[in-house]
Design a protein that fits this description.
heterodimer; A: mainly alpha; about 0% strand
Chain lengths: ~160, ~140
């Protein structure tokens, strides 16, 4: 599959699809895999604590990533990253796995899943705002309406009385 | 602060925290391969979570797991790793304003899997159908 080619950024020789289409397919793949996630997490949490599941999941993921990186690209690129880039990824990891999950579990503890999940699922609105303000990305009216519809649809699903 | 107000603030902070992830990743991906980026982000997350558990005294008993829990943790790790890698790879090609809302459609896929894998027909309600339709229309508006 073209999007699995480990070429340098921008090298797309022989790729039958456009960069945008490839990006969209990859984003959909991410959504599908995050859609499967809850089933395994739910089963792991039957006998494991949240701390155990979060920690060991990260340990397994880190180990697999290191093996994959070593096999496909070697370990040298990991040490060749510049300071600002390393800071960006460390902050991304912290925002995702430490802050995000800590706030998420704290919110569920205080107001419950039914009220917490719909609010936290509005993150694409925040992401679009940060991307426009911080990265100078362009948000057209059509895309803004698309984001709004996705958020409204997600709210409809997550606030339904039947729990997934 | 009242407990309920605090809970809503935490929920908003959750959304804000998750929203920073693709933005920061896109900054880092300007000069690094996505696999290197994911590796650094996940390793940082693991270190920070491990440190947090240690400092808050929640580190005790972490190793007490039965084999079924281990199996599902591994499966959970593989799927979430696949998801975050695909997400980072997508950010090489498309902006955050496009990637974030597409990946945010995952509850619709969770619903489809609940229906297909567990035969939970009760998950399909009129409200859920309306929500799925809104996601599909929103998705088309984003990528069209």
């Amino acid at each position: 599959m073209p999007f699995l080619h480990l070429t340098a950024r921008g090298e797309r020789a022989g790729c039958p699809v456009t960069a945008t289409a490839e990006g969209i397919v990859l984003a959909v793949v991410a959504a599908i895999l995050w859609g499967i996630d809850p089933f395994f997490a739910q089963r792991a949490l039957r006998r494991g604590t949240p701390a155990q599941v979060v920690f060991w999941t990260l340990v397994v993921a880190s180990t697999l990533l290191l093996i994959a990186h070593a096999a496909l690209m070697g370990l040298a690129p990991l040490g060749a990253v510049s300071g600002p880039t390393l800071t960006a990824f460390v902050l991304a990891g912290g925002a995702n796995y430490l802050l995000g999950r800590t706030f998420y579990f704290s919110s569920i503890r205080d107001v419950g899943v039914a009220r917490s999940v719909p609010i936290s699922s509005t993150y694409p609105l925040f992401a679009a705002t940060f991307a426009v303000l911080g990265l100078g990305e362009i948000l057209t009216l059509r895309r803004a309406l698309g984001i709004l519809l996705v958020v409204v649809g997600t709210l409809c699903i997550t606030t339904d009385r039947v729990r997934l | 602060m009242r407990l309920q107000t605090r809970g809503y603030v935490y929920a908003l902070l959750t959304a804000a925290s998750f929203a920073w992830v693709p933005v920061l990743a896109r900054v880092g991906l300007r000069e690094t391969h996505y696999l290197t980026g994911v590796t650094l982000a996940v390793w940082s997350g693991t270190a920070l979570v491990g440190l947090g558990l240690l400092l808050t005294g929640q580190g005790r008993g972490l190793a007490r797991l039965d084999r079924w829990t281990v199996l599902f943790i591994v499966l959970y790790a593989v799927t979430s790793l696949g998801a975050i890698t695909a997400n980072y790879a997508s950010l090489v090609h498309i902006p955050v304003v496009l990637s974030a809302p597409i990946t945010a459609t995952y509850p619709a896929f969770a619903l489809i899997f609940a229906f297909l894998l567990q035969r939970r027909t009760q998950v399909i309600t009129p409200r859920v159908l309306a929500g799925t339709l809104a996601i599909v229309v929103g998705g088309v508006m984003l990528v069209w």
